[in-house]
Amino acid sequence: MTTVATPDASSPEPTSPGPNPSGPGSSQPVLSGAIAVEIPGDAVPADQVPADPVPAESASVPSAPGAPAGPAVPAATGRGRAGRRAALDWRIRFGALSLIWGFSFLLIKVGTEGYAPFQVTLGRLVFGTAVLAVAMAVKRERLPRGARTWGHLAVAALLLNALPFSLFAYAELSIPSTLAGICNATSPLWGMALSMVALSEDRPTRRRVAGLGLGFLGVLTVLGAWQGFHGLDATGTAMALLASLSYPVGWIYVRRTLAGSDHSHLSMTGAQLLIATVQLALVMPLFTSAPSHFPLVPLLATAALGALGTGFAVLVQYGLVAEVGPTTAQMVTYFIPVIATAAGVAVLGESLTWSTPVGAVIVLAGAALTQTRARR
After folding, report:
1. Residue whose C-alpha is closest to residue 160's, from 100, 259, 71
2. Phi, psi at residue 58, to the nearest 5°?
3. 178: closest CA among 209, 223, 142?
């Protein structure tokens, strides 16, 4: 995920996917474990971006590769390069980010084996918020002010964090993590379709429309449409697809309401996750009671999902966007379903038919086409 929830509405360029965060400035390296992560400053031109995760840009609407991964929080992306190099080569950090977000679906599945879906989501948000709170303390950032800003952040927190995170957790009660990871990859397709309607500056091109059609053909392939969706849990699959749709809806809302905000990126992201945590804390007692026991492995999976996939990954993504730019950083989106599928099969022993990887390739090809821009 990301820092400033203030995309630049005037920018005609597509925004980076997933939790692509913000651009550089006076970047300050922060040690998290053994990895030096850059927290970008605010001295760069803003563009748009996005955590769980989530998570590929769709026209002007980024979508979190991170439904599973980082917070799908909007952030401004700088087009310059970071003034200070990170301790680790960007390729290593890129690979680490791909693994963290790819394994997020496995962690969700393991977490729900010991705790209710809302409990997993709340734990994820608590640990993710804690990581960003530490980053804010190191950078001496404060939470944003203003009732209007907090009101819009509350809607963004629901659409980009609380709702999709919860939907994925509930979905994985009845569908394999491999399918959830592939459903997450449809976010840029939904975003492309929505942006054609909601964002006047996003003009459809033949290539993008073709990519949209190809992507949804891939979805039908994954779901085995020619077999009448035999053996498919319709409710769980619908929840996963709805979670993926929630990201671009949230991004369009953010673009229309928070563009031009002068609050810092990190404080906006931290505030958004904090609000999402409060939302879940208020809703959870209505649907589930407090756990009577605390199984260790699911608890560790939930902690890793929040601290790594929803908190730490955002900071890593910051540094990547600052150093190599959003176009290269967003390519992580296309590795997430591959890693999610491999992890589900290798670690959880989930079954895999030929239609799943073939459909996933078609989905990713379609998503890539929707991100192409006409040459000037």
Report:
1. 71
2. -125, 110
3. 223
Give the whole-angstrom CA distance, residue 105 versus residue 111: 10
Question: Which tokens sit at 104?
Answer: 């997020």
d(CA 239, CA 243): 6
Over residues 53-100, the pLDDT tens digits come to 433 333 333 333 343 333 344 444 333 444 455 678 888 999 999 899
- pLDDT of 254 > 70? The answer is yes
> Any alpha helices (H) in 158-233, and if so which ranges?
163-171, 177-184, 187-198, 206-223
When mean pLDDT is compared across 7-16, 30-39, 155-164, 246-255, the lowest value belongs to 30-39
Counting Cα atoms < 13 Å in the Cβ hemisphere of 214 gives: 18
Indicate the burial class of 143 (C-beta count within 10 angstroms; 0-12, 13-18, 19 or more).
middle
Tens digit of pLDDT for each residue in 285-344?
999 988 888 999 999 999 999 999 999 998 888 788 878 877 677 778 778 888 898 899
- In degrees and rounded to multiples of 5, residue 62 shows phi and psi of -75, 150
Give the separation between CA 218 and CA 240, rounded to whole angstroms. Answer: 16
pLDDT(181) > 70: yes
H and E: helices and strands count for the chain: 15, 4
DSSP string, 77-127: --SS--SS--SS-HHHHHHHHHHHHHTHHHHHHHHHTTS-HHHHHHHHHHH
Stated pTM of the model: 0.77
Contact (CB, 8 A) for 126 and 161: no
∠ at Cα 320 (43, 67), nearest 5°?
A: 105
